[in-house]
């Protein structure tokens, strides 16, 4: 797909719908790739700042896309979009955007937090969104791309028979697949946290959960 880095390529392959909204669209490259590849029929780019909004308008000119200057879901009407993406923000900010106008959240979501993916996972469990897929993208930085679908009929089966806290912190489907890339990332983090001279309560908790998971998987004595 054109003009997308590995992170946004991983996001794009998770999206296929009629109308897709992208919050924090920046230059609009994700929507352009989705439109030109036929993965969506219409796009809605929403930006809270003027300059990125102008960047998106320039990128999406001539395509079936609206570009709106608005604060998150304030720029979207209930039922207007079939799917939504929010990428490149912290997990706390992503959840704040989703919680502000819950009636405007589409049934299909692709979310890529730069930090605190556990905040997104906790929100999804409370809001009745099931985790359909998650992918780890490792480059200069590490990202998790998560796809959710609204389903309030039952608890999310992705967390069945899982250590709940480990699943929230490191991803239930990633842990189930347990690929070598994830193992390397977790071992690196374990070593970093173990050697950290002063740990916060949060980092100590993360180390404890991580050590338990790695022992369970046979990677620690």
TrEMBL record:
Keyword Cell inner membrane listed: no
InterPro entries linked to this entry: SAM-dependent_MTases_sf, TrmK
Annotated keywords: Methyltransferase, Transferase
GO terms, biological process: methylation
EC numbers on record: 2.1.1.217
Coiled-coil residue spans: none
GO MF term list: tRNA (adenine(22)-N1)-methyltransferase activity
Keyword hit for Transferase: yes
PANTHER family, sorted: TRNA (ADENINE(22)-N(1))-METHYLTRANSFERASE (PTHR38451:SF1)
Protein name: tRNA (Adenine(22)-N(1))-methyltransferase
Species of the source: Stieleria neptunia
Higher taxonomy: Bacteria, Pseudomonadati, Planctomycetota, Planctomycetia, Pirellulales
Encoding gene per record: trmK
């Amino acid at each position: 797909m054109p003009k997308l880095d590995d992170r946004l390529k991983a996001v794009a392959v998770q999206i296929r719908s009629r109308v897709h909204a992208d919050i924090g669209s920046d230059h609009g490259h994700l929507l352009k790739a989705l439109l030109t590849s036929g993965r969506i029929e219409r796009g809605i780019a929403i930006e809270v700042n003027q300059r990125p909004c102008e960047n998106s308008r320039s990128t999406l000119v001539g395509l079936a896309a609206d570009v709106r200057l608005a604060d998150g879901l304030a720029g979207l009407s209930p039922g207007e979009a079939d799917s939504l993406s929010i990428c490149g923000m912290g997990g706390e900010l992503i959840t704040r955007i989703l919680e502000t106008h819950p009636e405007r959240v589409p049934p299909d979501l692709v979310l890529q937090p730069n930090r605190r993916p556990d905040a997104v996972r906790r929100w999804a469990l409370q809001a009745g969104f099931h985790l359909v897929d998650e992918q780890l993208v490792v480059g200069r930085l590490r990202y998790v791309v998560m796809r959710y679908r609204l389903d309030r009929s039952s608890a999310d089966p992705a967390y069945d028979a899982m250590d709940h806290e480990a699943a929230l912190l490191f991803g239930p489907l990633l842990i189930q697949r347990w690929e070598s890339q994830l193992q390397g990332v977790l071992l690196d983090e374990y070593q970093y946290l173990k050697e950290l001279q002063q740990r916060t309560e949060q980092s100590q908790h993360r180390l404890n959960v991580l050590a338990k998971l790695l022992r369970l998987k046979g990677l620690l004595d």
